[in-house]
Amino acid sequence: MPFKLSFQYQQQTVKLGGWTENFWCGLSDLTAATAKAGQLRTLLDPLHGNTTFLTGCRISDAATFRDVTLLSWPLNTQNPGTSPGSVSDYPTNALLLRLTGLPNYRTQQWLKGIWDGVIASGGYYQPTATYQGYMQAFLAFLTAGSNSMVLRVLDKSQAFKPIKDITQAGVVNCTGHGYSDNAMVRISRCRGLTQANNVWRITRIDADTFSLQGWVAPSPATPYLGNGVSRLRLYTYVPIGGGSIIRATEHAVGRPLEQLIGRRRTRRT
Length: 269
What we know:
mainly beta; Elongation Factor Tu (Ef-tu), domain 3; seven-stranded antiparallel beta sheet; six-stranded antiparallel beta sheet; elongated
């Protein structure tokens, strides 16, 4: 059972802006996953400026998303980014990280509160040699198979299944659908009864039919005109195979009034 590692950050400003950065560990043992969270913490720390504090990590299981443990760290433990330019002003500076996995999966993750000095000229990622070393170590950890870091993505191997009919009561006729009770299913491409085009939790009736939970019959009645398909929304966990920075963002706020929102300058790397 994979675990979600939610690292909780707080900015040392008047408004105390806070956020989380989430990663997934594919290990099934909580003790081992907790150890990986500790290792990942030491790699995340130097990527963030020395006025950004990692206050803790909430670890939850992937099945229920219930918290299973909470790691806490003292606020006075300052990040080791002591080089010139390592000050950070959340959310003024952030990097968008793209993580990939085979065969063709990818997700994106923001790293916020990073060093001011690694973004220049209104939004270009221009890391120092020191920062580049920190980033390479972080990405090497994520992509090392021995660390069991994974992407949580929708399974693209799930087949599209043609829908024969949808009644006004929200009963779907889909031959041999194979869905279990309470499964999450996306319906798309429907003509006529377009209200059905959405993600639904279903109630299994038999091998060929299921009903849509929360369905509200259209008024006036709208006939289903065909073309619809259904697809099971099933999450899978894929080992991280690669990572790169694809965008740098700089917000024109923060100094001197400690604002947390405002105009944004952004560039693709």
